[in-house]
Amino acid sequence: MDMDEVLKIFIAESRELLEQMEDALLLLESAPEDADTINAIFRAAHTIKGSAGLFGLDLIVAFTHIAESVLDRIRNGELHFDETLTALFLQVGDHLGTLITLIDDGHDLEHLDEEKLKQNRQLSERLSEYMTPTRQSGGLPTSQERLIERSVQGGLSADHWHLSLRFGPDTLRNGMDPLSLLRYLNTFGRIVNIVPLLDRIPPAAEMDPETCYLSFEVAFASEADKATIEGAFEFVREDSLIRILPPHSKSNEYLELIRGLPEEDMRLGEILMRCGTLTAAELQDVLHAQVQGQQDAESRPIGQVLMEESLVQPPVIAAALQKQQQVKENRSNESNLIRVDAGKLDQLINLVGELIIAGAGARMTAQQCGHAEMLEATELMSRLVEEVRDSALTLRMVQIGATFNRFQRVVRDVSHELGKDIALSISGGETELDKTVVERITDPLTHLVRNAMDHGIEPQAVRQARGKPAKGNVRLNAFHDAGSIVLEVTDDGGGLDPQRILAKAQERGLIAEGQALSEKEIFNLIFEPGFSTADQVSNLSGRGVGMDVVKRNITALRGSIDLDSVLGQGTCVRIRLPLTLAIIDGFLVGVGQAGYVIPLDLVEECIELETSDLQERGHVSLRGEVLPFIRLRDLFEDESQPPRRENVVVVSYAGSRAGLVVDSLMGEFQTVIKPLGKLFGTCRGVGGFTILGSGAVALILDIPGLLSELTSSAPSNALLASEA
């Protein structure tokens, strides 16, 4: 078994559990008594502790055990979540996340630096303040209490837990080591005695080295509760037979244990004696009770036996069965999911891209040969490759909602720091986006959300004076639009003052004195490097700090960013991104001997360019509407002779429309996007390149960039308005 791979799984699952724990803690602020949410937090901590014990991560086990004990008191109603306790457990989650990251980076937790140890110690002390100094939940009772319980309940003499372990045959194949589970028990207790059972071990010639034949009867002394002990076997419970009896269990409980295990009753009883769980006299009483019970059952109808022995009412049984069925369904759904390394998905996408290029070459060869059967075969292959492409890209698509939900913590912490009452609302969380894009958009979104809270939302007194609700609101929204995804960060704060932005820009030399700009162009000045304001009281304070970095990161994803703002009402920052960075449907056009690819989602229509439609200053009349256009021949300085007939490809993006004048239309084309090198990073109008079936290189046009340039150079921005 590759322990490095297993450790990676532990790290990934722990991070997921910590995210779930944080989400649940934030939900508790609005519903502090929600039992399901409290149980979710307890399960997350319990699972992390159990998994950490398997790897000998004693620091995490000890720290999480204290947190788990406090959570257990909360579950039992002895404590209640308040703002202070919620904040403490958020810090606990952050600390566990730091320890997990250290493990991921290859650090040894036994040699932590003093700062991390101090933080661990301080959090442990703060958690310990919530633990009662009297008997803890799940702890062993005192000797006097045991005598009382025994006299009342009729329990037997054993003062330790008894574990009957029958590991499933696939335990080793599933990556679990039974001995490591036993070693983990020693982290919160002591194995008093252990008796291995050899019944299932076949002759040596018939043994399978990957099959587990191990079974044990274990006497275990611990102050832990039953849930903690069961948690040690959480990862093998499905395929194994695990039975746990608490200290001083009743004789009928031992009787049920003996009945439920596969070994013969008398032999199993002898094993229990060897463990020290039962004395000879107690074993005789248990077996005698079993014989007497069988005789009584033979003389009574089975229905009467069940009714007499059942202490649970039918409605309770029905509710328990329903809950059990829900758990089974959830586990069934979880079993349908597998964890795949992101690098393997990237490799798959790259191979699909090469397959598309190879398929285009085969199709071109078939067309040149004119062989009918080969043409039919290549057409079929092209359709199948397209389906494979769509399926492969779907594997990397994730919902943006998980990323949005992380900002609940950001909003909570920043609002407390600023002394503002701010709520975060989320919509469009089900919108799917390429995982690569999601990972790279988190930092820009974080900056925008922080800016909205710090410099957009006014203090409560100012908001109330303006007739606004005292609680500010930041909204995250996502939706699909024309083959792109749009992310919006909106606040109901003070908005942007265009005149103040203009004055600051002139003061810093970003624009010339007296230069006329539209309101949108003025707002876009905050994305210029170096734009900021020293006035921290103003609504504009800090709006431009770092915004150039945000824009640069968005542009690197082939996206665009703009904003709308109304003074006194709020601001909306809008980000447009491609759905994927790897493969798109393109439309291939030709200019001279060169080919260019336009994203198909941005193409509206294609028309033939008529001389009579041409107007002044690069505009054409399209059914009575003035449409600006760009000649790709002029843009790329192609000096070849233009054809007699040219075509116009009408494209639209973010509400703007324009025409691209080209020589020829070559049809749809599956496009594998290849990034440009650093040498060509400043080429305007180009977003990458692809390889055609002939082996030639075709440039992929940056339509948002071309439209933006056309907008800024147009004599009237109204010419780009679309009245669709």
From TrEMBL:
Domain annotation HPt: ranges: 1-103
Pfam families, A to Z: CheW, H-kinase_dim, HATPase_c, Hpt
SMART domains: CheW, H-kinase_dim, HATPase_c, HPT
Top EC class for this record: transferase
Domain CheW-like, residue spans: 583-712
Chloroplast as UniProt keyword: no
Keywords: ATP-binding, Chemotaxis, Kinase, Nucleotide-binding, Phosphoprotein, Transferase, Two-component regulatory system
Cleaved signal peptide residues: none
EC number: 2.7.13.3
Enzymatic reactions: ATP + protein L-histidine = ADP + protein N-phospho-L-histidine
PROSITE patterns: CHEW (PS50851), HIS_KIN (PS50109), HPT (PS50894)
Domain Histidine kinase, first and last residues per copy: 374-581
Residues recorded with modification Phosphohistidine: H46
PANTHER family the record matches: CHEMOTAXIS PROTEIN CHEA, SENSOR HISTIDINE KINASE CHEA
Role played: Involved in the transmission of sensory signals from the chemoreceptors to the flagellar motors. CheA is autophosphorylated; it can transfer its phosphate group to either CheB or CheY.
This protein's name: Chemotaxis protein CheA
